[in-house]
């Protein structure tokens, strides 16, 4: 890429922090892009953090990664260049994954857009956990074990579990959406409700564990632990088995901890490189909906810097974007 007309995201974040400038970011897909795709007859869908266009033949999806941030299953603010970083990371991981399992990506524009095969998402999200943390720990405290059990991770094992402790082996479980956010569901209930078939569940478990092992190995090589991650699958005419979709192994969809202060048994909170800084802030405030101004600026910059550290470490190069005025002028629809 010719970087002569580009600037590094790190330089922008440093300028915002040192000069006390207002934070800028893209909250929605630019009007000009939306008009272009609409003129081609494409359908539009806006999610919590990504905007999607689908071609009229229902075969291709175009995903635009905005800077919107979600937590507790709600939009909570804007993190500058978050979309650029997560698109780059998703592209990085999907290229690595392509030889071992079906995935949706067909192209990447180098900044915010990923092109892919269109599929029908399964009505579940898939969580792979190697450590006890987050909602799993809260469920264990309530005596709710069923979704987290497998042949090795028994109820007796979970009764003795401590927060941030490594599990005997990774587990795969499912969640669904409800009006109150994500809801854990057993695989048996998901199958009985028609959310997926038993055969699809078998494929998903295998692919999810492969995905986690790949991510764990790569992150560990750089000094991080992939404590858990979530992913999604879709039915597609391009493959006979479920297709991996959405973002993959990013710090936005995972718990990522510093390896240096994490071991198999301790209960001290690890240093995180994910969005737990925002989750904890919101939890302490007992609020689940904020606009950008209600999140402390330092929290936003810290999160952006952590995401950037992960991104540039894995890519082994600085991450560039167009002139900052380009994005600053596109922060509204």
Q: What would the average pLDDT be, to the nearest integer?
A: 87
Radius of gyration: 20 Å
CATH superfamily name of the largest domain? ATP-grasp fold, B domain
What is the distance, rounded to the nearest whole angstrom, between the alpha carbons of the first and last residues?
28 Å
- CATH C-level of the largest domain: Alpha Beta
The number of helices is 10
β-strand percent reads 25-35%
Helix content: 25-40%
Q: What is the CATH topology of the largest domain? A: D-amino Acid Aminotransferase, Chain A, domain 1
Count of β-strands: 16
Low-confidence stretches: 288-293, 325-333
Question: H/E series, N to C?
Answer: EHHEEEEEHEEEEHHEEHHEEEHHEH
Shape: globular
- Global structural class: alpha+beta
- In the residues, how many domains can be counted? 2
CATH architectural name of the largest domain: 2-Layer Sandwich
Characterize the main sheet: 7 strands, antiparallel
Secondary structure layout plus pairing:
Elements (H helix, E strand, L loop, with lengths): L5 E3 H10 L12 H9 L3 E4 L3 E5 L5 E6 L2 E4 L2 E5 L3 H16 L7 E4 L4 E5 L2 E2 L3 E7 L2 H8 L13 H5 L6 E13 L2 E5 L1 H6 L5 H24 L2 E12 L7 E3 L8 E5 L17 H10 L11 H19 L4 E3 L1 H5 L5
Antiparallel strand pairs: 1-16, 2-3, 3-4, 4-8, 5-6, 7-8, 9-13, 10-11, 10-13, 11-12, 13-14, 13-15
